[in-house]
User: What shape does this take?
Amino acid sequence: MPIAELQVYSVERADVTGGVCVVRCIGGVARAGQVYAVGDLRLGLRRIERYGRAVGFFDAGHVARVHLTGAVVALLGRGQVLTYVPPDGHSLDELEAWLATDPPLLDEPHPETLRAIAVARTHDRALPDAARMRWGRVALAAILRAGRPDDLTRGAETAAVRGYLIQEFGPGRGGDPAALCRDVLALIDLTPARAAAEARDWRNLPRERILHLRRIKNLVPWATLVRGHLAADDPLAEVVDAWTAVRGLLP
Assistant: This one.
């Protein structure tokens, strides 16, 4: 797909925080939430309006009124071209700066794309360990910003990153195994015995119940992964062992 590009028709207003422009998409698909570059400077595409209403995107050949963030909006002129910067075009420092200021969701790369890129960087053993751990924190922030409606799904994605960091870099440096186990278990609303009982006849359960058990199944492995780091007398170990034994029964 072509890289999205926007050509400025006019700047309607601008201040130190950003502004509103009329632009024409001259390539690709422009989407709310993207980041665009003018030279070395960045602008966030916060909102798109067409025919008086907000839309999520518009494509080549069409004109829209767009709300942009960044003081550089005041310097834009007619005919100037803004080029989309994909999330992997941002440096780690830039992404961490966004996260440190707790920006609005649409002022940063799309969280799903950012999560995928950050997880890939976390797993990249060619990078220094310190950079991989920083990418892990970016991945966790992206998961939170994705706004998952289901706590178990979000919990599984978060636990996967946390578990991997502990596995790769050890307790302490990579995270707290006991805290991860507590957080995983806190998301599960069943006892191991109750889950096993439901699993015996899961094919006759309502679809939503089957999906619920499956989400629990996807969550348990991350507690199992770090269980070996728990103290021998930690009561969490017994509970994690019980869920590990039950997991194979779940749909």
User: Anything to note?
Assistant: The longest helix spans residues 207-226. The chain is about 45% helix and 20% strand. The beta strands are 5-15, 18-27, 29-31, 35-38, 41-50, 53-55, 57-59, 63-69, 81-84. The longest strand covers residues 5-15.
